[in-house]
Amino acid sequence: MSDYSIWILEFACVPDAATSSLIFGRHNVGVEKLPYAYTLLKSREHTILLDCGLNAASHGLEFVERYNVSNWASPRDVLAEVGVTPEEIDYVILSHAHFDHMGGLELFPNAKFMIQSSELAGWVEVMAMDRKFRWLMGATDPGDIIYAVQLAREGRMIGIDGDQDNVLPGIDVRLVRDSHTVGSQYIIIRNDGQAASDDRYVYTGDLIYRFENFHGGDPSDPKILPNGLSFGNYTTIIFATDRILKEVAGDMKRVLIPHEGAMAEVYPSRTTGRGHYIVEVALAEGEATRI
Ligand SMILES: [Zn+2]
Questions:
Q1: Metallo-beta-lactamase domain spans which residues (predicted)?
Q2: pLDDT by residue for the chain (291 residues), tens digit each?
Q3: Ligand 1 centroid from CA 206, angstroms
Q4: Which of its termini does the chain have fewer beta carbons within 10 Å around, N or C?
Q5: How far is the CA of 186 from the centre of ligand 1 (A)?
Q6: Alpha carbon of 222 to ligand 1 centroid (Å)
Q7: Which domains are delineated in the chain?
């Protein structure tokens, strides 16, 4: 039986993201929709978000305009679709600190946050660099980094040092240093709570943007194509892509990709009145479907 119900909840999208930013080397082939989504895990003990989105009603607006983000809805409205409030979120595990993953810190007033220590420290270093290096901060809001440090001082931002099992019950994190960002991590959910679980999911953050990153368009003769926008080492990302798929014994539908709209075709899903998809990946015992 599943310990966690798992939903993927779209909260915004970029309607015209360059394909080349998603799949490395796909230049001059146009644009496609890039959804932004939360992943919600709900057990009897915990209500957890994997990444916390952005706050387009406030400081996130600058990034909304920079990247043409559309159709943003607040977490209060998005989570209401599955009967959850932002106040109920007790933990947020952050894959990395980009604006669309860590821009919503202040919207979850009762949450504690977890991030790789190297990710947080790395962004402080980049912020202190000369202005000519500002491209490195292109998807990172300095205000988010400052607020994350403030939360650390208050004991609400927990730094994780590398790979760690059971950061919460049945949830493990794996650091991929110098990849999409300096301290990106992916998150493993063992949904039966067993150490040698055969009910595993892996949440990729932005190490993966598309199922196609795993096979390059031909699953029968896979060629791993790294995502198209990373700040670190592409060879590292290629090997991490392989590792991620091995975490779930090659079962691609157990890979939860926050920017992959095709998740809505893999699992039961519906479209809300705001035009966002809700994907129901798993239901814990006693939970009713939200689809
Ligand atoms: Zn992202």
A1: 35-259
A2: 799 999 999 999 999 999 999 999 899 999 999 999 999 999 999 999 999 999 999 999 999 999 999 999 999 999 999 999 999 999 999 999 999 999 999 999 999 999 999 999 999 999 999 999 999 999 999 999 999 999 999 999 999 999 999 999 999 999 999 999 999 999 999 999 999 999 999 999 999 999 999 999 999 999 999 998 899 999 999 999 999 999 999 999 999 999 999 999 999 999 999 999 999 999 999 999 999
A3: 5
A4: N
A5: 13
A6: 24
A7: 5-282 (3.60.15.10)
- CA–centroid distance, 42 to ligand 1, in Å, is 22
Q: How many helices (H) and strands (E) does the chain have?
A: 8, 13
**DSSP letter assigned to residue 76:** H
Among 204, 193, 260, which Cα is nearest to 23's? Answer: 260
**DSSP state for residue 48 in the 8-state scheme:** E
For ligand 1, an ion, list residues with CB under 5 A.
100, 206
229 CB neighbour count, 10 Å cutoff: 17
- The single-letter DSSP state of residue 115 is E
Sign of CA dihedral 90, 96, 97, 102: negative
Query: Looking at residue 70, what DSSP letter applies?
Result: B
Residue 244 in tokens = 């991620």
Q: Where are the beta strands (DSSP E) in the chain?
A: 5-18, 31-42, 47-50, 91-93, 112-116, 157-160, 164-168, 171-177, 183-190, 200-203, 255-256, 269-271, 277-282
- Residue 120 near residue 157, CB atoms below 8 Å: yes
Residue 1 Cα, ligand 1 centroid: separation in angstroms?
A: 31
